[in-house]
Queue: 2 jobs
Job 1
Amino acid sequence: MTPVKSKKAWELRLYVAGKTAKSVTALTNLQKYCEEHLKGQYVIEVIDLLEKPQLAEGDQIFAIPTLVRKVPEPIRKIIGDLSNEEKVLVGLNIRPA
Amino acid sequence: MSKSRKNISATSYPTLPKSATGIIGLDEITGGGLPTGRPTLICGDAGSGKTLMSMEFIVRGAIEFNEPGVFMAFEEKADELAMNVASLGFDLNKLQADKKIRLDHVHIERSEIEETGEYDLEGLFIRLGHAIDSINAKRVVLDTIENLFSGLTNERILRAELGRLFHWLKEKGVTAIITGERGDGKLTRHGLEEYVSDCVILLDHRVIDQISTRRLRIVKYRGTVHGTNEYPFLIDEEGISVLPVTSLHLAKEVQTERISTGIAGLDQMLGGKGFFRGSSILVSGTAGTGKTSIAAYFAAETCKRGERCIYFSFEESPKQIVRNMHSIGLDVQRYLDNGLLHFHASRPTLYGLEMHLVAMHKHIRKFKPDTVILDPITNLITIGSVGEVKSMLVRLLDFLMEEQITVMFTALSLNTIVNEQTDEGVSSLVDAWLLVRDIEFNGERNRGMYVMKSRGMKHSNQVREFLITDDGLSLVDVYLGPEGVLTGSAREAEQLKEHTGQALRDYALDRKDREVLRKRKVLESKISSLQTEFESVEEELNKIYLEEELKKEVMEKNRREVMAMRRETKDGGIPAPAPAKKKGKK
């Protein structure tokens, strides 16, 4: 994969394993929240572990789907299908808890 | 459990395939190792050795059985793990570089993680699957997967996923170990035993009387027979060693070869040849009776034959023994230098009885001695009850008998009670029992030794005086005189007295002999003078006889002449008959 070289304020990575219902839901939810709150300042990278299993170790992935906020630091992880908007926004520090 | 019944048919059906762990003793208890291709649960308290045991399983698998393994750690980081087991001589980094093992640290930090909605642990599966495939692993360890429960809150999902994980592991065909922390009243805190049903091993770490002992028990092992007892195990610089059971049968090989005790007098008491090889000997006695000296002599004798001996000392340090034996003219150092003799000194209180047993096992296995000496077993009583010490010694004896190793124990019997019974109660187990005891008499203390028993050989029933001199040990017959059994200087005095008497008697006899000789000479000369006298008398008698004869002859002649003269006058006639001449002889 090519490292994402962007100056976006939010770099998000979504780990999935194939096109499962949960993965699809998670991606849809994520895109929705980002469009609503971070329009233009984010980039989402979707990593399918079925294709690149070696990447799971680096980000300490064990649950699927997992959303990793790489930027801004510190790294945060949200696991699950992201169905609870409130939790996702708090978890990503988009909205203060 | 129906294990015993299953065992009956075990011969006719293919048995459960097993993967050897390579851990000393564990494979014996499990009858070959852990179930191949199935998960095994190892549970125990914190610090009971779970991680180490599973790591040893992986490392030994990779090194000894050429089965690469994946170690997935949920607690420690890979480099921490590597450092922890480096002390056991395992170079994890090199093994990783050689693609023999793979460490993966799963870091779960609750504060970093937010949960929302449905998820599964597919990520873990993929990681594990990738690790397994990358080195073609046959063995997997998950240590400790329960950490997931502290990192994630949705127990429903976790339980479902764990169930799936164990199924998945079985499908993968890897031999897996899952470790779990022990919970209250349960084997594991989160009930992992529900998922792992094939083999469960429980580790325990107990402290009794300030002495800690690690123990291991196989709680269940489906489809195979296994030892059900608690087995002590030891963690030392070479990893884990589990002590296997007492052998259940008394069907040992025996030897008829005899070996010398190193003390000529003692050999003589034992039918002139010494002990049987592979037998067990107990030397008991009160303090300071020379038990250690006897043991050291036996050890030195073993080495003199070019055999190996291991000496477990529970009281003295090796240097002390070397020095002390030097004083009685026994050079032990020589055998230490050429490697035939090995000392292993440890305080009994260093660790528990079982640990002592495990440690001795290990040393014996490693050194492969022909003779083992335990000096003294009495001190072991300080760390266990009589029953425990006995049971430990029985197991040690069993092991030694199995290996055909001759063993000599020394035991201290208490000064006050000389009831010929050792506290450890091993006297009924040993083959030969020597008793050294004080004989207090005539204001001095001497040592007496006798053979209490010696199975299968003729042995002396005599008490011998046991002497420890600058030149070594020796046995002398005690003096049995009119005043009873004498030892020490009393014996010597008595012997001296007897010696003097002997000399006097000898002198007296000599004198008598000479007198007889003289008498004989006198008589002989008398006899010869009488003989001469007799001869002269005989000659005298003979002379008279001859004269008579002569006279008679002459007279006869005269008579004939006279007759002849008469016939001539009467005209010849018949010639006169020849006279009957008689020769006079004596």
Job 2
Amino acid sequence: MSATVAAGPDAAARPRIRASRWQVVEYQLYVGRRIWRTMFVVGVGTPLAYVLALGVGLGTVVDNNGNTLGVPYIVYVAPAFLTAAALQIAAADTAFPIMAGFKWIRTFHGMAATPLTATQICDGQLLWVALRIFANSAVYLGIMAAFGGTERWWVLLTIPVATLTAMAFAAPIAALAATLENEGNAFNMVFRFVVTPMFLFSGTFYPISQLPQWGQDLAYISPLWHGTMLARGAAIGHLGALPALGHVAYLLAWLVPGIAVARWRFAVRISK
Amino acid sequence: MIYGRNFRPRRLLPFPLVTTPTPRGQVDTLTRSSADPLIHARGLTKTFGTFTAVDGIDFAVPRGEAFGFLGPNGAGKSSTMRMIACVAPITSGSLRILGMDPATQGPAIRGRLGVVPQQDTLDLELTVRENLYIYGRYFGLSRSVLRGKVEELMDFAQLSDRADAKVEPLSGGMKRRLTIARSLINDPEILLLDEPTTGLDPQARHVLWDRLYRLKQQGVTLVLTTHYMDEAEQLCDRLVVMDGGRIVAEGSPQQLIAEHSTREVAELRFPPGENAAAAERVSALLDPASERAEVLPDRVLLYVADGERMLARAHEQGLAPISSLVRRSSLEDVFLRLTGRSLVD
């Protein structure tokens, strides 16, 4: 009978614990309700500005001066913007909220006192970012379409592609955020010296063949370039299946170890 | 009944307190054997690198008890609490909670614990109600169960009129009450409180004590750390004093006073510089087996069986303190005796 006693007489009456990562997502939705205005401005304002200023505005200049890309400039550049925006938002949405969860408002420590495990907390947090990026990318695509930036249905694939690219980069950022004990100055470095240059050197505005060799080498490392190639391939249709698989494999090579390390860092931080 | 229908009084009580007793409440009070401790630690140790925070302690907490860890800062209380909360892994020794092993059954144990951490982990952006609701969701409780539960707990924490206010501007005492309310969302069998009233004003502390006392009456097992002696005396049936990662004394507040102090303390204040000399003269009057004198910069403390008699005898000896008082020995005297007067940090 010792096992029964150990479990407590009311073990049967007690509802089975169904803690899961989705409850972390639910929490984020509650928080998100408070900041939906900001999310709306970022989610709609940014794509509007980029698609109008660079896609339509710069696109007119490019198209009038002998565009050799084979498609209007907006069709070429907009999927890259969509992917880059996804990556940037995911990085910011991972870095500071996770830092806050451990250090400033300490919500993760509160969650850790419940049946939730470190892995569930980490996964839930990443899942929330992925959902947000997915929704954001859909809105972006809608705005692209409204301004003539889409030509084929395959362009819908840019939404999952952008989400994959964003999370491939965000997972290691999550690991870093769970590790940092200081006030997060490291993130200023990451944004200044990694995220911004990545946007400029990942074939967003022009093919990387225009770059010197070292620039091309940088682009090959950058997950954003691989994501951009995929998204553009979906939008224009020039990308072969094999290169496409190669790009996906490269992004997974960031994502999967990134999640593993992030889970490990969450567990270490919580048990400290 | 203050807790309403879902807040069932459990354990310890031979009869149900609410008008609609539930099967669960009855089963509890009839079949629960108080012989198995809810928490059982043997040689429990926690090290951080070369630093030993908890140094092989033994203790057991039976169901329904209010058990306290006392000790100065850095004594190992919080590390012990984090191991009991199944948040920090143990380094060595053994720890069983509710008959389970924290290393392998952490989520199952945590599902039956309530935790009030030293630092609040409330979400300041959310309202009082949302904080309670979301926390209940982490335990997998359904929306319909939580709807009633949240109302009861807000009532219990005297926060119903702030239900839809954000947490951020609430006072420290309100936040603390909300943290306690939140820790009760899963009807915990053990409530862990790490310095529950540190930093609160006296009114807020008394309100909190009142709430904790009610929980104890309901049969919830309380485990708390504190460095307030009055808090320990108010709340704890039994406590251990920790110092340097070890348990240096164990017992009820009365037992500890009886064992480690005298019945009364006479405090004699002499002019500055004369205290040491006065203490020497008065020491001759003490029973060396059970009584002692302690010199502080501003006064002499005499730990004696009969304070008034000692005071009279000191006057007979020609000693003329500026002021004097006789009081009962307190847990604080025990604490200072066991852990010393010097600062450790």
